[in-house]
Amino acid sequence: MSDAWTALLPQEPIRFDPDFAWGVGSSAFQAEGGDVPNDWVDLALRGEVPPNPGNGFLERYAEDFRLLAALGFRHYRLSVEWSRVEPERGRFDEAALDHYRAVCDAASEAGLTPWVNLFHFTHPRWLVARGGLHGPDGADAFLRYAERTVAALAPHTRHWHSQNESMVYVFGAYLVGQLPPKIADGDIAIAMTERVARLHAATHEIVKARDPGSTVATIEVYLDYHAENPDDPANSAMVAAVDAWYNGALLEGLATGVLPLPGRDPVEIPGLRGALDVYGFNYYNATALGPSSVTSWSDRPDAPIDAMGRHVYPGGMESGLLRAARALPGVPLIVTENGCPTTDETFRIRYVAAHLAALDRARRAGADVRGYFHWTAVDNYEWEQGYSDARFGLVGFDPQSKERTPKRSAQFFRDLIARGELRPSDVP
Ligand code: BGC
Predict the structure, then answer these.
(1) Ligand 1: which atom is nearest the Cα of residue 380?
(2) Helix (H, G, I), strand (E, B) or coil at 182
(3) Ligand 1 nearest-atom number relative to CA 219
(4) Which residue ranges make up each domain of the chain?
(5) DSSP symbols for 339-408
(6) Which of 218, 375, 387 to mutate to test the pocket of ligand 1 (most atoms within 8 A of CB)?
(7) d(Cα 40, Cα 181) in Å, to the nearest integer?
(8) Structure confidence by residue, pLDDT tens digits, 191-223
């Protein structure tokens, strides 16, 4: 084993109480795929991204849930594909809502608690044609969809997320123009920062009005920012400003109800303060920002590198969990996504073990971390990468028959969850 892995892996056993929430995360379009009327299908039709035939989850969800429950998982994070539920503006498809009701029920029957997320990066085609989520009726459209979907599914789930990674969505879709709608405009990015926070607060109210005892969790991916050239004061100042906006603004908004916005007056957002029961914390890797570059970062030149060229750096998970815990005292944390793109099962198991060790360090330093959801269950569509070696699943599938094959990492989780302990000797 390389010195870099040795330095990252746990040296002592790590205990997990029986009530520690072990789960897996997924998103609708990444797992279901199919010819749905959304913007990713349109990108594929234009040849800009690979097509997505799906991984079979659309038909095999009940089988997947039974398999995951047999491994010991007790939670499943899924999302609703907006373009299935509302394929045309204002026309809600009851059959699609029935499908998601059945998915939630099948999860519960298998022994998994469903956590339903309303928005995971994809936009219905009709919304794009009307100017997108940032357009004049984007917010109303989202809330109409949220109201309808929450009403339909509230009897079937008590755990909700308004959006996945709202800040990476703003960053990727509106600041750097990489995710659809591929806009690179600082003013729109700031306006969208406010909009996603307002949508979260309003969705929280919609859910609580239906079911006051439900759990609403935000989901943000922590980007542990570093300067590409820390000796350059301008680079460091830029990194501090991006970090204060990207990681800091929403934490402050949730804590105080007032959202700080770069270069603008802070805005008070009704209902934002305390609009969460759980803070969902996603983490993959650390990020180096240069004057015009975004790359992955590590404190060691020999850090292991995953199939998407990213350095493994669990230290960012530890510091990020502690930061969220300090910003939101009294709010429990769950790691709602962590995992890595690879075809090498030794790599995946080491990655997970190294991040569980970081989670444990954060816990011991005071962060109230109640669970860990692995990304993802069955290999899925990794956006621009499609179905490549960037495989995040604990379970593989045959592209023709869609038959499932659990990987070595699935066995690793099964043993870890059953024992309630991660032992250094369990890591290859
Ligand atoms: C996103 C997922 C994506 C994963 C791995 C997360 O930030 O929520 O959709 O598959 O990263 O890249």
Answers:
(1) 10
(2) coil
(3) 8
(4) 3-426
(5) ----S-HHHHHHHHHHHHHHHHHHHHTT--EEEEEEE-SB----GGG-SSS----SEEE-TTT--EEE-H
(6) 375
(7) 10
(8) 999 999 999 999 999 999 999 999 999 999 999
d(CA 156, CA 298): 42
Kindly report, residue by residue over 85-135, the tens digit of the pLDDT: 999 999 999 999 999 999 999 999 999 999 999 999 999 999 999 999 999
pTM as predicted? 0.98
Question: For 345-359, what is each residue's pLDDT tens digit?
Answer: 999 999 999 999 999
CATH of 3-426, one of 3.40.50.300, 3.30.450.20, 3.40.50.720, 3.20.20.80: 3.20.20.80
32 Cα: distance to centroid of ligand 1 (angstroms): 15
Residues whose CB falls within 8 Å of the CB of residue 115, separated by 6 or more in sequence, listed in order: 23, 75, 76, 77, 78, 157, 159, 160, 161, 217, 336
Residue 332: strand, helix, or coil:
coil
The CA 273 to ligand 1 mean position distance, Å, reads 27
**179 ligand 1 Cβ < 6 A:** no
- The answer to whether the CB of 380 is under 6 A from ligand 1 is no
* Contact assessment for residue 153 and residue 101, using Cβ atoms and an 8 Å cutoff: yes
Ligand 1: atom nearest CA of 165 is 8
